[in-house]
Amino acid sequence: MKISEVKSTTREQRITPHTHIKGLGLNEEGKAFQAADGFVGQTSAREACGIIVDMIKSKKMAGRALLLAGAPGTGKTAIALAIAQELGSKVPFCPMVGSEVYSSEVKKTEVLMENFRRAIGLRIKETKEVYEGEVTELSPEEIENPLGGYGKTLSQVIIGLKTVKGTKQLKLDPSIYESIQKERVTVGDVIYIEANTGAVKRVGRSDAYATEFDLEAEEYVPLPKGEVHKKKEVVQDVTLNDLDIANARPQGGQDIMSMMGQLLKPKKTEITDKLRKEINKVVNKYIDQGIAELVPGVLFIDEVHLLDIECFTYLNKALESTLSPIVIFATNRGMCQVRGTEDIVAPHGIPVDLLDRILIIRTLPYTLEDIRSIVQIRAKTEGLTLSEDALNHLAESGVRTSLRYVIQLLTPASILARINGRENITLEDIKEVDDLFYDAKSSAKVLAEYQGLYKFKQ
Ligand SMILES: Nc1ncnc2c1ncn2[C@@H]1O[C@H](COP(=O)(O)OP(=O)(O)OP(=O)(O)O)[C@@H](O)[C@H]1O
Ligand SMILES: [Mg+2]
């Protein structure tokens, strides 16, 4: 086996349908540019979402819900992802699709509950007594196993820590050595050890080592100031779901364990309602004491018409809770039956009592010009070049069919062009793939025409 010939694929950039979307494309006053951040047109929906982003950032939106409604391919999913990008990495954003709730192993409401808790962040500020510094030495000391038998056991670990002000040598218990190994600490790393719990956290590599040849991207940090032994404010961003998991399986997430573990009994393996209630209680206490700050994020439920009445009832209740994120729904359905009911027909397949508390944002069909610009952006993202008349043809076809259909023609057309020895996609390529593939509307028409042929003769 030749390992040298195997290429890793991790570095290659994957192009997904929404790669070109980088944000909502709004100016300082919240007005949408006709084209910016990969977005073209759909300006009022983008501006409305800009206001929502501001509300979320100023924490005025918790427990509210929003619905993006519009025809297929009008950019609802793209807008939701742009909202996520505008919010940044500190605000949790949890995307899911309505159909995800249907599983044979987990209850529907359990899936919803888990995603709800993924969308609620908690910023915990704690002042901790720590030993912090650059590791100058790391030497485990072994002794003969006192119980006899073969092998040696660890008696203690000696670690040297250096700061700008001085150095200190610490003798550590073997149990701490395990966490040192888990964090893969080596000489030259900057770490801190919590004095009370012995939890070890690797901050990064000391920048004295910044010139060394490194294959992996490393975070270089300056040599810590002050003494080795000091009080340090530690900020952690976690979601409620992280806390649930950490407490259900005590071996993971040491940092979180250090605060929650004291209150909750370990050795739980399943996230139960009771556990969640206990966690909520502790979280609320921390919020009251000012140790933690609630960061309501976004739960995005795409294709919301796929949820059933049981889920909607649950959502109604969950939105009322004090620990609730902002929920954004998206659907391309108009009037339709609410799933799980026999005869209830409601707008967007959502029961009216839930619909009542939702703000609705419409996405409108695109104009020829918009489609033209979007196709151009997509071609550029996929690294393809199009001739002018090919682009015009796609834009016209997009008005008749759908934006998504014409975007999807790009890749097959580029393959055709390459087969014919060209880099540039021409009108002929586009026409040929347009003949080979069907859009949804014409495919349905064909089936309707030939319906008679598919029936069994009796
Ligand atoms: N205004 C826009 N600017 C740039 N790209 C867009 C815009 N609107 C949609 N797109 C792109 O067009 C494609 C289809 O859009 P999207 O998937 O967001 O539609 P949708 O409204 O979610 O449709 P559906 O109802 O079928 O789920 C995606 O690749 C999306 O990134
Ligand atoms: Mg969508």
Automatic annotation (TrEMBL):
Any one GO MF annotation of this record: DNA helicase activity
Q: Which UniProt keywords apply?
A: Activator, ATP-binding, Chromatin regulator, DNA damage, DNA repair, Helicase, Hydrolase, Nucleotide-binding, Nucleus, Transcription, Transcription regulation
Q: Top enzyme class of this protein?
A: hydrolase
* GO BP, sorted A to Z: chromatin organization; DNA repair
Which coarse location class describes where this protein primarily resides? nucleus
Task: List its EC numbers.
Answer: 3.6.4.12
PANTHER family on file: RUVB-RELATED REPTIN AND PONTIN
Q: Which reaction does it catalyse?
A: ATP + H2O = ADP + phosphate + H(+)
**InterPro entries given for it?**
AAA+_ATPase, P-loop_NTPase, RuvB-like, RuvB-like_C, RuvBL1/2_DNA/RNA_bd_dom, TIP49_P-loop
In terms of superkingdom, the source organism counts as Eukaryota
Q: Where in the cell is it found?
A: Nucleus
Q: Name one Pfam family in it.
A: TIP49_C
Identification of the protein by name:
RuvB-like helicase
Physiological role: DNA helicase participates in several chromatin remodeling complexes, including the SWR1 and the INO80 complexes.
GO cellular component, as recorded: Ino80 complex; Swr1 complex
Q: Family membership, please give it.
A: Belongs to the RuvB family.
**AAA+ ATPase domain sequence ranges:** 62-365
